[in-house]
Input
Amino acid sequence: AAARSWRGPLQGRLVGRLREQVQDGCLSGTSASLLLEILGPCEAGAVAEAPSLAVLHGLHDFDPDVRRLALWAAASSTPRSSCEGVLAHCAGLLQDPAWPVRLAALEAVAKLAWANLATCTVAVPLLLLRARDCDWPVRRAALDVLARLWEDLMSC
Output
């Protein structure tokens, strides 16, 4: 709850600033429009019931920052009942050439893994593969997530 209290206003300011940049002509093109579509609900503090088409489209954008934000939005807006389908979309980005995108994909897959046992069973082998990633931030995050999952499973 404490983490959410600062995120809403921060996201609202981020979206407002993005809108200004687009209106001033500093940002243009598909990526800028897609960022606004992905982050738009955050401006009002709303949380979607399921990932929008813009979010799913953003997972395949050419811009790594759009892919990262789309991963965050997909994992944050997915109800427990839809986690398996969204997990498949996010898991594909665990092989992304950009390590920040792989890191965001790892965090999204981890968030979705906590939904139920079925998603956890699918996510663990994917997370194990990232423990051998060529970039250390991804390896470290994979091991941290796996350790948390293990602790949670052992405490049940």
